[in-house]
């Protein structure tokens, strides 16, 4: 699932290595706190990272493909 998420993200915003290291995926974001709030309103829970400005998704065993798709879709809607 982590790889599925990374594959769905463009290179210019993915801060985590493309190779698997963990379920943590860090994504560049100019307004991370605002993005966290917007995604929370859509039922997507992530956290902001203060340095560098970024958001972080935590993919774990209780997630599924639908969660990844919902996150990517909500993120895309937030950035448009």
Please, could you describe this protein's structure?
By secondary structure, the chain is α+β, with helices and mostly antiparallel strands. 21% of the residues are buried. The chain has helices at residues 2-8, 32-41, 65-78, and strands at 24-28, 47-49, 54-58. A hairpin with a 4-residue loop joins strand 2 and strand 3. Helix 1 (2-8) runs parallel beside helix 3. The longest helix is centred in the C-terminal third of the chain and has 14 residues, at 65-78. It is globular. It has a three-stranded antiparallel beta sheet with strand order 1-3-2, covered by helices on one side. The chain contains three helices and three strands; from the N terminus they run αβαββα.
Keywords, separated by commas or semicolons:
80 residues, 3-stranded antiparallel β-sheet, alpha+beta, globular, 3 helices
What low-confidence regions span 5 or more consecutive residues with pLDDT below 50?
Answer: none
Strand order of the largest sheet: 1-3-2
Mean pLDDT: 94
* Helix count, DSSP H or I runs of 4 or more residues: 3
Helix-strand pattern: HEHEEH
Q: In angstroms, what is the radius of gyration? A: 11 Å
């Amino acid at each position: 699932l982590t790889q599925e998420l990374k594959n769905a993200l463009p290179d210019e915003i993915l801060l985590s290595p493309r190779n698997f290291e963990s379920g943590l995926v860090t994504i560049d974001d100019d307004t991370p706190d605002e993005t966290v709030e917007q995604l929370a309103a859509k039922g997507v829970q992530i956290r902001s990272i203060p340095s560098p400005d970024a958001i972080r998704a935590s993919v774990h065993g209780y997630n599924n493909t639908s969660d990844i798709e919902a996150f990517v879709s909500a993120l895309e809607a937030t950035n448009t």
